[in-house]
Amino acid sequence: MSHPGTFITIEGVEGAGKSTQSRLLASALSTAGVQPVLTREPGGTPLAERIRDLVLDPAFAPVDPECELFLYLAARTDHVRRQILPRLAAGDWVLCDRFTDATVAYQGYGRGLDVDWVREQAEHAGQVHPDLTLLLDLDVDAGLARVRARGAENRLDAERVEFHRAVRKGYLQLAADQPRRIVIVDAAGGTEEVHRRVLNVVSARLGSRLQRPLAPVREAVR
């Protein structure tokens, strides 16, 4: 689906720094002349946030893979129709922490559901393709160590390491299949270092749409 806005998604395994880098990129974009809408999946609307609470709650483990898939798709459908599509139609920049690639990586490659079928379901619910996807790639053990250090694991954080490795493999396969849209960003190293890598990619791909050049935000360079 075409739209006058700009849609960026950030993907990666647990602990890759998606939320931090999404927030920093949003701040950098605001200083470059745009006011991006920062959102996340699952979530982004009141209904989708309630579904997020359910699907990530360790109390409900284990969840049947197809049940899990359809919960994510329900959240995305509401998110896309109530938040993402209206914003893009208005010409806004939308920056989303996870989107359809996460569904294919987690429920397809991670859970072992048929990847082509999962992709079809995910794209039907998603309705729109990102202009750019940043894949923050990190060794699974390093990512899970970050998760443990911050505490408060959710249901996915607590999955076996083999699951997370399958998810990472899936993400890398998606990037290999769609190199024009998905750009791999090395997520190892400090926050500032990764932030600069993210800005370099966004500048190269979408810099012509900005009023001013992207520059690192103060929060990342302290």
Descriptive tags:
55% helix, five-stranded parallel β-sheet, Rossmann fold, 12% strand, 222 residues, 9 helices, alpha/beta
Second CATH tier, the architecture: 3-Layer(aba) Sandwich
Q: Estimate the strand proportion.
A: 5-15%
Low-confidence stretches: none
For this structure, the CATH topology is Rossmann fold
Radius of gyration: 17 Å
Output the CATH class name. Alpha Beta
Give the strand tally: 5
The chain-level mean pLDDT equals: 94
- Total discrete domains: 1
Main β sheet profile:
5 strands, parallel
N-to-C CA distance: 40 Å
Numbering strands along the chain, what is their spatial order in the largest sheet? 2-3-1-4-5
Shape: globular
Helix content: 40-55%
Topology as a string of helices (H) and strands (E): EHEHHEHHEHHEHH
Q: Which structural class do you get from the secondary structure elements?
A: alpha/beta
Quickly count the helices.
Answer: 9
The CATH homologous superfamily is called: P-loop containing nucleotide triphosphate hydrolases
